[in-house]
């Protein structure tokens, strides 16, 4: 009688920013004076200033040359936590090259980022375990010994690296915490119950199940080493009359398959594995839902937006253009130290299933042991886009004896592609003299609206009426 064999699959992973319709508490717009904020901080600690006066999402800034000020604009959403001034200052200092490192005669700049790296020696130890157990033992005691040995090796500390910002800062901690939690989302040790989003473990297990059930060769590689990292998507902004606004600043998750070289180093293959790519695409598509369930990712997105705005402020020489000196914020304001671990335990998880199906070799088993590490890279490079032009209506000139031509309709074409019909205007008696156009009310610009809402030049912050 032939001895039943076990189908084994071992997967190692390396893990390498709009108001709701109908809400009565929809976000409100808020403006913060950076000139006054700096003065408040110099005079003494201010809790309002430390939390950016309640702003939960930064959207851009306005140059107030007359008031010699830069006004940060954003949203206040009761469903989110306020942003931190320290994070904004760190982003400004990175953009101003305060954190460049000197090596010899050269200075090296790094965008804000972090990485949680596995020790190559640990990967070699895991390979040795694989060689000792070419097949997962079917005997319960032997299998448990294998899993215990694998888990003990996999949980060895992984080195944490922080780039471009101070290591012991809140900015760095958010990046590391978001990256470290990603491991649990990758290996499936936590579930968010979001439609269309599943862990890499689940993706892999489901593929293996389908292969077994349909009698196909396994599409799951026995050994897979993948790196995942957060990075900015296409970041765009508009600029008009001293108003600079981020239009998009998405956070993306990317991946690359890696391998352990003969010398023991980890190298990239320059391509993603199919399963890891599916995971990253789903994560990116569902980022806002994931952030709603795990606020650390909303904080991470906030950092990406800060980096984008900081680069626009410094790259556009905004302080000089506005005639305001922000040296205290950029050079002397003391950042509150926040402890960040230099190493974190590796994460492991095991997913096992057995298919009760007659096969020539007997029952089939698959055990997945996953480890992960990764990183964050905030190399945000905002790209300017044109402000969408609104086609203005011509003023209607009506007389008692004539009817003006109907103004072009702003309605969208119908589904069939035909142009929307324009209702005819009925003759009316003109209220203005013949031939003189009737003036149309102009919508005030955002800059005028923000500046008009400010009650005093000494106001630290103020709310801005919604556009009518």
Structural commentary:
The protein is an alpha+beta fold and 468 residues long. It contains 13 helices and 18 strands. The strands form four sheets. Strands 17-9-10-2-3-1-18 form a seven-stranded mixed beta sheet, with helices on both faces. Strand 11 (251-260) and strand 12 form a beta hairpin. It is elongated. Mean pLDDT is 80; it is low at 1-22 and 390-433.
* SS class: alpha+beta
Question: What distance lies between the first and last C-alpha atoms, to the nearest angstrom?
Answer: 82 Å
**Rg from Cα:** 29 Å
The total count of strands amounts to: 18
Q: Major sheet, described briefly?
A: 7 strands, mixed
- Beta strand %: 15-25%
Segments where pLDDT lies below 50 for 5+ residues?
1-22, 390-433
Strand order of the largest sheet: 17-9-10-2-3-1-18
Shape: elongated
Average pLDDT figure: 80
| Number of continuous helical runs | 13
Share of helix among residues? 25-40%
Blueprint (SSEs and pairs):
Blueprint: E1 28-33, H1 34-43, H2 47-50, E2 57-64, E3 69-76, H3 85-95, E4 101-103, E5 106-108, E6 113-117, H4 120-132, H5 140-154, E7 157-163, H6 170-187, H7 200-213, E8 225-232, E9 236-240, E10 243-248, E11 251-260, E12 266-268, H8 274-285, H9 287-293, H10 296-315, H11 318-322, H12 327-332, E13 343-345, E14 349-355, E15 364-370, E16 374-377, E17 383-384, H13 446-453, E18 461-464
Parallel strand pairs: 8-16, 9-17
Antiparallel strand pairs: 1-3, 1-18, 2-3, 2-10, 4-5, 6-7, 6-16, 7-13, 8-11, 9-10, 11-12, 14-15
Helix pairs in contact: 3-10, 4-5, 6-10, 9-10
């Amino acid at each position: 009688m032939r001895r039943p064999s076990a189908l084994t699959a071992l997967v190692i992973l390396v893990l390498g920013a709009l108001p709701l319709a109908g809400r009565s508490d929809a976000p409100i717009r808020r403006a913060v004076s950076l000139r006054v904020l700096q003065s408040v901080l110099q005079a003494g600690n201010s809790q309002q200033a430390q939390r950016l006066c309640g702003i939960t999402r930064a959207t851009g800034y306005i140059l107030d040359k007359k008031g010699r000020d830069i006004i940060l604009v954003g949203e206040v959403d009761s469903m989110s936590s306020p942003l931190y001034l320290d994070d904004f200052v760190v982003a400004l200092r990175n953009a101003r090259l305060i954190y460049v490192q000197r090596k010899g005669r050269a200075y090296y700049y790094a965008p804000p980022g972090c990485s949680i790296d596995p020790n190559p020696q640990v990967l070699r130890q895991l390979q040795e375990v694989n060689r000792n157990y070419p097949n997962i033992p079917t005997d319960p005691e032997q299998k448990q010994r294998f899993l215990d040995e694998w888990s003990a090796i996999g949980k060895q500390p992984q080195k944490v690296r922080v780039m471009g910002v101070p290591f012991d800062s809140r900015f760095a901690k958010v990046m590391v915490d978001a990256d470290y939690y990603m491991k649990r989302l990758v290996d499936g040790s936590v579930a968010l119950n979001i439609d269309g989003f599943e862990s890499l473990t689940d993706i892999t297990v489901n593929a293996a199940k389908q292969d077994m059930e349909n009698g196909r060769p396994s599409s799951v590689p026995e050994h897979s080493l993948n790196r995942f990292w957060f990075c900015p998507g296409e970041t765009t902004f508009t600029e008009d009359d001293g108003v600079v606004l981020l239009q998009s600043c998405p956070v993306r998750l990317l991946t690359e398959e890696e391998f352990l070289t003969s010398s023991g180093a980890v190298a990239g293959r320059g391509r993603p594995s199919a399963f890891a790519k599916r995971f990253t695409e789903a994560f990116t598509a569902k980022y806002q839902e994931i952030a709603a369930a795990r606020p650390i990712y909303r904080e991470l997105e906030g950092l990406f937006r800060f980096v984008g705005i900081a680069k626009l402020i410094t790259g556009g020489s905004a302080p000089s253009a506005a005639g305001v000196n922000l040296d205290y914020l950029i050079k002397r304001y003391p950042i509150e130290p926040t402890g960040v671990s230099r190493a974190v335990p590796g994460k492991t998880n095991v997913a096992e299933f057995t298919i009760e199906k007659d096969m020539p070799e007997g029952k089939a088993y698959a055990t997945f042991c996953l480890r992960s590490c990764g990183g964050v890279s905030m190399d945000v490079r905002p790209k300017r886009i044109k402000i969408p032009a609104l086609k203005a209506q011509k003023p209607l000139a009506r007389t008692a004896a004539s009817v003006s031509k109907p103004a072009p309709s702003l309605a969208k074409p119908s589904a069939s592609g035909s142009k929307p019909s324009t209702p005819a205007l009925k003759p009316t008696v003109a209220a203005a003299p013949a031939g003189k156009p009737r003036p149309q009310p102009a919508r005030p610009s955002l800059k005028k609206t923000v500046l008009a809402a400010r009650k005093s030049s000494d106001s630290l912050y103020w709310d801005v009426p919604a556009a009518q």
